[in-house]
Every structure is written in C-alpha cells, then in structure tokens.
C-alpha cells in the first residue's frame, strides 16, 4: 500500500543546482555529516517523527558528492526515520564502499542485527538529546547500547544544545567509546567565543581525548551572518571564530560535513557549493584542511 507523507508546513527543500566550489577539496575528502530521507515510497518515515521532510535519495546525495568534489560520505541517521535504518543501510551498501553510516538503534536490537549493520558500513550510533527532535530515552538504555556497540569498536555521536552540556557531562564521560559532538554542541554564536558556554565545550574536549566535534552547520548556527547564497563572500561570519577555535585547538579531532539536505532550516537554504567555500575560513592551512577533511574521518570511519 502506498503511503502519503505531506511535508511539514514551511519545509524548505534542498538547494537545486548548487554552485561549483571555488575551494578545491584535498583528494580523498569526506563529507562526514549528511543524511538520506526516504524516498518515502520505499523507506516510509517513522510514525514517531517530529517532522516530515522532502525526499532526499542516495542517488541525489551521491550526485552532490561528485559535484562538490568529495570522495566519500558519512551518512547519519536522521530522526524522521526513527530506529529504522533501512534507507541508511541501502545507501551505504550501494556506495561501493564510499559511504559509512551512523545508525539509531533501540535496546532490543539483537547482536545479529548489529553485526549486519557493521557489515553494511555502520560505524557508530547517534544519541539525540535535542528535545524538539526526539522523545526522551532513559539513560540506562543508552548506556546499555553504548557498551554493546563498544564491542564492535563503534563510536557514539551525540546531538545536544549547548545549555544542556552541564547536565549531560557526567553521562557523556561515562560512555565507553569515542564520542563525536554534532555541530559544535550548538553554541549560541551571539555570545563570545571565549565566553562561559563555549569555554565549557572546549574544556570538555581538552579533558577528554576521546571526544571529537563536527565543525558543521554554520547555516544552522549563524545569528547575524548573511547566508551562503548568490555569491555572498562573507557568509556566516559569526560562526567562524567558534569553528576555527576547535579546528586549531583540536586539529586531530574535528570533522566537517555539509548536513545536506539540511533538515528544519526555517529561513534560507544554503547553496552547498558555497558551504564548501566556507571551509578555508575555519581551517586556514593545507595541513588543517587535510586533517579535517581526509585524515580524521578516514581514521574514524575507514580505519579497520
Ligand atoms: C542535523 C540537524 C537537525 C536534525 C536532525 O536527525 C535529525 O532530525 O539531525 C536539526 O533539526 O537540527 O544534524 O541535520
């Protein structure tokens, strides 16, 4: 039976016809945070989802990869698919080894299912603490999952708002794997880069060498910066000091990704080509760029 999934009102579709980046990515670059949505006809969205996106297929993702000049993708399970990793797994196994994945699992996942996910290319699970995106999961369930995936040498990706870090700190430090923070822990970039809030994230990474961060989503975090549209040269300037600080302080523990197809953006949809042109503003030297785009994601996702 075919099902209909009307998009959430006001949903912005991803940018059609992205520009060719001026910044030439180093050979072997990885887009280490992106998603696939559906297509809903084949991979229906989860009943418990908090939004209904437009479809964004693996073919469209791989076309974007080639257009921008990336070699590989790390595809992250989005909340609209719940713990049904079907679309993600299908994308990974269709990628000829050029995509790895981060899944969402529940505590009742079997060892056999985890092994099958590993074979498909999954190397991590995502714990989401952003309240508008997910219902609450008890911590003991997450700890149980963490210990099971640790045996596969996977890591845990965590998505949370900066104000929630103090409350999550002890839980995070008790996790037995590498920990990857989405979108720099969503700092309020209208505050100072040396302010209390971002200092806490920096301290968290300094004190815990197993913690990494994605320096992603300027389009999501920017408050006053102009969007990366229509050739704008100085887009998202308020995010630059935050990303730059992490790249320069922890050059071996940062990752970059497009976040295509950019779920839940309310005001504008970025041109992904111009997002790539943002990279040299946060990673200023060829060495920092190579670590951010090649060495770090390869070590975490393709190092066997
Ligand atoms: C992102 C950001 C968001 C959504 C999700 O899984 C998701 O639904 O991650 C968001 O709404 O901030 O990483 O794509």
From TrEMBL:
The UniProt record lists the Amidohydrolase-related domain at: 30-301
Question: What's one Pfam family here?
Answer: Amidohydro_2
Family annotation (InterPro entries) = Amidohydro-rel, Aro_Compnd_Degr_Hydrolases, GLI/LigI, Metal_Hydrolase
Return the protein name: Amidohydrolase family protein
Highest classification ranks of the organism: Bacteria, Pseudomonadati, Pseudomonadota, Betaproteobacteria, Burkholderiales
